[in-house]
Amino acid sequence: MNNIIIAALIGFSLGATGYIVFRFWLLPIGRYQRIKDQITESIRHHELKLSNENIFQLPPDQSEICRKQSVALTDAYYDDLPHWYRMVLANRKESPDDASKNLLALSGIRDPDHARNRILNIKKSLNLS
């Protein structure tokens, strides 16, 4: 009977620890990575648009997507990510805050040179290739 109680306590503690790690570390990091991947796809789309046109103006739906991605990136960084992962990002020289500011500014830019500059800044801020 004593072994069953010890096994139950070990199982409960491992389950509780696993839940905490999954809920408060893995899910937020995965959410951040998903948002970053979505921003990468948007940036690729904008770069293709820049290479084909002399005037850069996002359609209203794309501008709204940029703004929503900016807000989602900021929320994920400040509200969801654990502090130790923010330190990892700082060590990698990733700045989601700067990327968010540039992404928000990109949503209203019309000059192609300014748009290229913002896209380059976003790539640098998020360490995108």
Describe it:
The chain is mainly alpha-helical and 129 residues long. The protein is built from five helices and no strands. It has one domain (25-126). Helices cover 83% and strands 0% of the residues. Helix 1 packs antiparallel against helix 2, helix 1 runs antiparallel to helix 5 and helix 4 packs antiparallel against helix 5 (112-126).
Name the descriptors.
mainly alpha, 129 residues
The SS-based structural class is mainly alpha
Instruction: Output the radius of gyration.
Output: 20 Å
**End-to-end gap:** 59 Å
Overall pLDDT level: 92
Helix coverage percent: over 70%
What characteristic shape results from the CA principal axes?
Answer: elongated
Taking the sheet with the most strands, its summary is: none
Counted by DSSP, the helix tally is 5
Parts with pLDDT < 50 across at least 5 consecutive residues: none
Beta-strand percentage range: under 5%
- Give the number of domains: 1
State the order of secondary-structure elements, H for helix, E for strand: HHHHH
Number of strands: 0
Task: Please sum up the structure shown.
The protein has helices spanning 2-52, 60-80, 83-91, 96-106, 112-126.
List the helices and strands and how they pair.
Layout lengths: L1 H51 L7 H21 L2 H9 L4 H11 L5 H15 L3
